[in-house]
Amino acid sequence: MGEYTLITGATGFVGSAVARVLQQRGHRIRLMVRAGADLSNLEGLDFERVTGDLTAPDSFAAALENCRYLFHVAADYRLWVPDPAVMMRANVEGTRRLMLAAQAAGVEKIVYCSSVAALGLTKDASPANETTPITEHDVIGVYKRSKYRAEQEVLKLVRENGLPAVIVNPSTPVGPRDIKPTPTGQMIVDVASGRMPAYVDSGLNIVHVDDVAEGHALALERGTIGEKYILGGENYMLGDLFSLIGEVACVRPPRIKLRQSWLQPVAVVSEWMARGFGVEPRVTRETLAMSRKKMYFTSLKAQEQLGYAPRPARDAVADAITWFREHGRIRTR
Asked: Which PANTHER family match (predicted)?
């Protein structure tokens, strides 16, 4: 039986939190890291490093050698990509090949980090769960389609190949070590810095990144093969979340609520500039289309079956603001 627990994506926001939780539980961790990756999120961890990449399947066998468990957290997470095929190759085909390599290596159990982006939404905006119906036609955006397809590939391998995988679906994590930052983290920085005068309202589920990491560990320890578990927190309208951020950061939150239709021309111009100059757009037509849907979810299944217990969203926001301030990301005017 293998002695290592392999984690992909451990240099990132969620992956580094997962690595910390597993090390605290006594796992001997091995991290598959891309060449030249920023390792600052791994400070204080004791780990074995192997070089690998989701787009380089030849690197998987060496990473998985002598591993008992696999946590696949890595993903190409961008809301804008000039070439969707690049993201699909990493998130879908890379995931499928990694799952097959893990099974060939004799890995005992796999926790695959999917996303609520791969799940269905209710028509009445009530919280969705793991069984809310969805088809690929319902999925908006390249990233969400890639996560939907990747999850379907994992489920297919469970059914047809006996892949020993459990799936977790985090909602919108916030908290410390959001080094990029994620789109949600950037929103927190902008609001807490007084740099967001207006917004387009939407609905989302906010969860502390460390609770998501704890949920990953619980999925390994208590999760059923082939099952999905939403790892979420509290549902918020975006305007209410901004009010919470303003209260915690002691700044005035944005008050002007815009209609999606007003920003369509801005999105078109932003995408044109992104293609022409290689800069990431702050708003796209896909993000506007996504904002029309309330991404509300319930984590009741994970709470009842795994013992998952997320803390209040206020704590997640407060920890995120503290970390961003300590690292010079928030400068209130």
From this structure: NAD(P)-BINDING DOMAIN-CONTAINING PROTEIN-RELATED, PROTEIN YEEZ
- pTM for the whole structure: 0.92
d(CA 297, CA 157): 26
Closest C-alpha to 87, from 41, 134, 149: 149
Helices (H), 204-311: 209-222, 238-249, 264-277, 285-291, 300-306
pLDDT digit string, tens, across residues 187-244: 999 999 999 988 888 999 999 999 999 999 999 999 999 999 999 999 999 999 999 9
Take residue 25 and report the two structure tokens written for it.
């539980």
- What is the rounded distance in angstroms from the CA atom of residue 309 to the CA atom of residue 311? 7
Question: How many other β-carbons are positioned within 10 Å of the β-carbon of residue 148?
Answer: 24
Cα–Cα distances (Å) from 276 to 83, 87, 266, 271, in that order, read 13, 20, 15, 9
Residue 8 contacts residue 98 (beta carbons within 8 Å): yes
- Is-contact 88 146, C-beta < 8 A? yes
Q: Find, among 40, 32, 171, the residue nearest to 105 by Cα.
A: 32
Distance CA 254, CA 240 (A): 10
Strand 234-237 and strand 228-231: the pairing is unpaired
pLDDT digits (tens, 9 = 90+) for 117-174: 999 999 999 999 999 999 998 888 889 999 999 999 999 999 999 999 999 999 999 9
Tell me how far apart the alpha carbons of residues 209 and 193 are, in angstroms, rounded to a whole number.
22
Cα 95 to Cα 112: distance, rounded to the nearest angstrom: 9
* Spatial strand order in the sheet of 172-174: 172-174, 203-208, 234-237
**CATH code of the region 4-175+206-234+298-311:** 3.40.50.720
